[in-house]
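Changelog entry: the Glutathione-dependent formaldehyde dehydrogenase record was regenerated in this release. Current contents:
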Amino acid sequence: MRALTWQGKRNVSVETVDDPGLQHPDDAIIEVTSTAICGSDLHLYEVLTPFMDEGDIIGHECMGRVVEAGPESNLTADDRVVIPFTISCGSCWMCQRGLTSQCETTQVREHGSGAALFGYSRLYGSVPGGQAEFLRVPKANYNPISVAHDLPDERYLFLSDILPTAWQGVQYAGIKRGDTLAVYGLGPVGQFVARIGMHLGAEVHAIDPLPERRALAARYGVRVYDLTEDLHDEIRDATEGRGPDAVVDAVGMEAHGSPVAHFAQHAATMLPDPVARKFFETAGVDRLAALHASIDLVRRGGTVSLSGVYGGIADPMPMLTLFDKQIQLRMGQCNVKRWIDDLLPLIEDPADPLGTMDLVTHRVPLSEAPDAYKMFQEKTDGCIKVVLDPKA
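Regenerated structure tokens:
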């Protein structure tokens, strides 16, 4: 089969690799019909390279058609399924409590990590990912989300990651009708965070430096702001001087405006891999501009919810401010299956209230994935969300 493989820092290529096969009775094999590039894939492209191995198949947002089903998979051929990016068993202590991203059956204990993830480095099990023609799905008796055949892929595809990630971010923010919510970052997750906030009856303020991202969010009634020196004053003026009730940081570890941390991240990737891995595991730092700005902006007694991915072990945090302002922090890898019952009716609503059909800016063949990664990272050509078509 053809698959997108990691070859080095900022270097991915489409190669011919072995087809996947069933390894356990609860496995399934799917033919991938759509697979997306996620913002967190860019961390593998740039920052987390010491944890990657040449030839790793990447990608963790995909859906497709079952072509082979193990006897314990609860699936049959031609079933249409979305594959959550987390690999969870559904029956362990964590899964039974809705914490599927902490699944005790698939935890990557070697690195002290939670549940294994598709296509996401040694840190999460080095499981072959979904930017490929075919994908082996472990724990297929629980993991896959079965969907109908009548709606286009883009109505369902984002259930694999970014839509439940955004939903969890808003739920963790504790937003109620009439509350005010701010969103830092209007990439794909931030776009859905803003739309979900509006859907739940909040007043939403969103911040992003790119005009095309602000324009897309504004179509949904979101108040949008550029990264200016007085933007926090503007938002406070609109919230009776207090600041918003909650802020969702949808940016993560590679935020702009953190030059020292950016240098440290870059320098670490230039070290030999074993040394670099040790650095990340003991002294790694994130670019924290968006998180620190969220802490500054939120009202006293408010909540900061992290949807953007962080991976630093030695991140400096403004503990005085957090304590003095009585701020709650909530975060974590998304527990995808926990939120599907809430999201599926919205996905299948003919009105498409969350705008799942109004996010993708580029749909390209899998063969063009290397150029698409470069475009997505550099934010050129108005790129907000890329979907790859392995069948094109």
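The two ends are 14 Å apart (CA to CA).
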